[in-house]
Amino acid sequence: MQDIIQAFNLNVDMAVEARDLIRGTTNQEIQGVEEQVEKMENIKVTTITIKDQNGAQKMGRPIGSYITIESPPLRINDPYVKDEIIKAMVKSMPLLIGNSLPADSTVLLVGLGNWRATPDALGPKFIEYSPITRHYHQYAPDALVQGMRPICGIAPGVLGITGLETFEVVKGIVEKVKPALLVVVDSLAAQNVERIGTSIQMCNTGIQPGAGIGNERQAIRQEDLGVPVIAIGCPTIVNAAIIAAQAVKQFCSNTSAIYDEIKSLNAVQDVLSFFGGSLAVTPKEVDDIIENTSRIIAMGVAQSLFPGISREQLELYAT
Amino acid sequence: MQDIIQAFNLNVDMAVEARDLIRGTTNQEIQGVEEQVEKMENIKVTTITIKDQNGAQKMGRPIGSYITIESPPLRINDPYVKDEIIKAMVKSMPLLIGNSLPADSTVLLVGLGNWRATPDALGPKFIEYSPITRHYHQYAPDALVQGMRPICGIAPGVLGITGLETFEVVKGIVEKVKPALLVVVDSLAAQNVERIGTSIQMCNTGIQPGAGIGNERQAIRQEDLGVPVIAIGCPTIVNAAIIAAQAVKQFCSNTSAIYDEIKSLNAVQDVLSFFGGSLAVTPKEVDDIIENTSRIIAMGVAQSLFPGISREQLELYAT
Amino acid sequence: MQDIIQAFNLNVDMAVEARDLIRGTTNQEIQGVEEQVEKMENIKVTTITIKDQNGAQKMGRPIGSYITIESPPLRINDPYVKDEIIKAMVKSMPLLIGNSLPADSTVLLVGLGNWRATPDALGPKFIEYSPITRHYHQYAPDALVQGMRPICGIAPGVLGITGLETFEVVKGIVEKVKPALLVVVDSLAAQNVERIGTSIQMCNTGIQPGAGIGNERQAIRQEDLGVPVIAIGCPTIVNAAIIAAQAVKQFCSNTSAIYDEIKSLNAVQDVLSFFGGSLAVTPKEVDDIIENTSRIIAMGVAQSLFPGISREQLELYAT
Amino acid sequence: MQDIIQAFNLNVDMAVEARDLIRGTTNQEIQGVEEQVEKMENIKVTTITIKDQNGAQKMGRPIGSYITIESPPLRINDPYVKDEIIKAMVKSMPLLIGNSLPADSTVLLVGLGNWRATPDALGPKFIEYSPITRHYHQYAPDALVQGMRPICGIAPGVLGITGLETFEVVKGIVEKVKPALLVVVDSLAAQNVERIGTSIQMCNTGIQPGAGIGNERQAIRQEDLGVPVIAIGCPTIVNAAIIAAQAVKQFCSNTSAIYDEIKSLNAVQDVLSFFGGSLAVTPKEVDDIIENTSRIIAMGVAQSLFPGISREQLELYAT
Hints:
- The structure is a homotetramer.
- Chain A is of the alpha/beta class.
- Chain A has a single domain (2-315), classed as HybD-like (Rossmann fold, 3-Layer(aba) Sandwich).
- The first copy, chain A, has helices at 2-7, 15-26, 53-59, 79-97, 122-129, 134-139, 142-145, 159-162, 166-177, 222-225, 240-254, 261-272, 286-305, 311-317, and strands at residues 33-39, 44-50, 64-70, 107-111, 151-154, 181-190, 199-203, 229-239, 279-283.
- In chain A, strands 1, 2, 3, 4, 5, 6, 7, 8 and 9 form a nine-stranded mixed beta sheet that branches.
- In chain A, strand 1 and strand 2 form a beta hairpin.
- The longest helix of chain A has 20 residues, at 286-305.
- The radius of gyration of chain A is 20 Å and the shape is globular.
- Strand 9 (279-283) of chain A pairs antiparallel with strand 9 (279-283) of chain B.
């Protein structure tokens, strides 16, 4: 797959998949990387910790913690599984934030992605379903805001529809609002269709589009913003080139044909050249998946940030 | 591909692709089927006429005319190409309708598909952009409606969101409104990614979901409705199974591997089993494609039905 | 107000307001009309029963039961009030339906109004948030549909955007689907701004646009459809002419000026003539009001129709 | 009306209406204010120039130029009127900008208002329909961008849904992007229903919510941003209190009743108190009005900023 990923300039957005890709070739522990798995009734939580530069280079992402919450297929909208996922998110947050977030400090939520392209609308929908409270602190009686930390949120759109780099918009707002924490939500691309709508990844290293390809300047991360950044994502597509290459590989392993990565790549390019690398594979129910996961992530984040407030109360504050 | 198409229960929505699939194996004329190609500056118009039951059986669709308008890639939103396509639609209509449509007879527009799933929203968007005039005939002064045939339109939704068969809704309305013609617009699935957003198919045999799979009862066609039906569609997706199978086939033809259709099918199923056959491949710009093609089809249909009215005037009547 | 209502051809959509208008002049019991009021913690339920033709003529609406659920201002999105309203709806339903609805009979939900005009979108939103189950009865295992009556739903749009009379569409579908009951939801116009978003009216006499003005043909009611019809509505606007006339009247009662209904009407017409009678007064939060009340009505109807199913389960079936 | 405006804390958004309110009492020239009227076939262009502090204080807005383009009622979507309006906008721009805008300098478009409340969505829709080109300058071949000045755009949302002051977002972006000009579009409140959807106001003094009420801090203007600001707006609502007060006044002038501004105000407050001052009067066709005027403003601005490019070409670049 590595050839396909490089040839089509694809991201490996999920740490668990980056680990699988490396393990696939070496089949052994990755130096500088630790892993811990916890299983609950319906969900599995994998924590990958990249501990040093060696691990960072191998994994193609920065030193830090990457938590993946996986729930069994097709049950994501089950209210009990929903609850379990939200609880797992709330439990994971302190590991990522540390315990340093004062109770009355401001948090800025950022919903990345394009609201006009369904599979890319996870971030904007997250903002829509999140409780926003910062303005009450200026205008409302104290009673209202007791226990309600100031939360603000923005979906900055994408370069193609605003002409603005996401970093420019976010950096500008951070300088004005001076939040204590950023929570950034974005759609991810997966390597396997089973992950679409069934995994949530949380990490404390920010979001770095094009990491490893030498295009570091747009990263939404603490180094560049001066504020800790929690990034949360859910896979909503698999690139069509990955699917096609997997089928070729599977065909070879099912037959006596010899798999040749370069010839596989050529075949995939022959089939998909028309739209370049931008063909996405999505399930027909992608609208529902975006709707459900954006609500779950919004609620998981809100319950982490407002520990004393009930979920029904939080839903009233959702914009 | 035939194995994949059957195994995943896929439709071959485009007559030109059905022809290619048959030709692919026989490489000769198809008995009972005639074909005519016309090239213009930026577009190519292919008319396939199925003349008898023999041709119908081979092509897997009814006797009738199938016109495909193809425009070169990536230029669909060029205003000059747009004009050419609209003109080709206007020119094609009489071949499909015959000359029997009285100037003051009512036409019912039907936009099939699910407005909540972007690639399936072509039909509902078509209704949104079409001029609707039937109500003026009851309420407005004669001057207003001169040259404006009564047009009404509905997007009946899909079974999954209404619990109603499309046929039930359309048949009920046809019995009340008694139109002289139905124009039905729907998204299509293609076999090749290059067709997405670049081809428009028009035919006079209605729309028959699941044609050839023995599920004939929902067809929107003259036999069941008692009214001529023009069906117009544009490909917006390719099934992921088709892409994967094409890559395997291409790989075999690029290497010395022997292509085996059943083993290819197995490989594709191994990769895609998680979401069944419902994984769609779409370009990232699918929202724009739906927007542009639905407007072009609406204008092509409107100019066919209101021959004396300018395009600017028609846009004023669009709902 | 009666002059204004007639001059601007306005509807008095709510039975409790029709009663107030009559009482306003006579200040006594209305013959043939009974009324019963029940107060709960946060809500008040008024049942008006029109018992004979005499009452029907005075009230300007057919013989039948009209239940109005009123909740205190500004608290409509409080989860506890929400629960109380839903319970009051569930309790009121049997009075309107009678006990004759077999457990497995089909119900057709109809969401009237224009989805492109926010204050008129209550009906279409109601369909969006209602559980739809009829299609499962054909395609899904028995287990799934146990206790789930077949429900289907449609938002037929308005004449101005479809060119179709609502009655034509609904009658056509009723003839095909043969439901045992229709539940029709629509936005209402109120006479007082305090009712906007705070009252829900349920009745068993259908919806009769233009009742009393001699335009009876479009009524969605049992006499014309052959199926019992429950109509549910919530006020979302007050006509601007009403507001203006109320201010004039209030001014006269605050000063020594003599109120003259005809001169008041002339003044209102002078101020509002530009847009005819179609100027609506809405609160700025009308989008939220539509969102909240459509969800509450959807849940109240669903819990009435699926008595054994939990709310969380019902939300999973909402389309 | 002044009492109503103060009591309900309303803005007089249009300079021509501020002038009428002052003239109403003094019936003479306003010192420090000049006015010029130009009539064309279907439109009237009024230029009000506030020349000194005296005029500014009387008019309740800063020194600068205020151009109002008015088109006759009900014809706003006529394509010929549309063209005339766009031409009048293009002609007015240099008066507001001066001639100092270099051909390759960046312009930032800002669409104020709430995309979830129809009458307030003019600004966000303006961004949607405007050509955005800044990103092409980084990534596309020179040929593409010849004559295409870098344009970027953002709809920052409103405090209630983001928790962010508009000024914070805009100031942050201005500091990063360093544009040579801001063009800010917003919905306006009018004093007369005839202005809804029929007037466009352009000025070079920015947008100053709450001007004159002592709340100057959020103004989007050159003094605070360091960049010239053109503000463009179109009235989409009239406050219900204005309508009600006008009816009382009209009633008094139609009868022998003596108009008393304070008692009129009391009557209006009695009628409207429930929703405070936030009741808006809108025509039923407000969705269409927003759609049409946002497109017209987008095209007027685009043709001003890209003088050599055809309208069809510009529409291709609209996001």
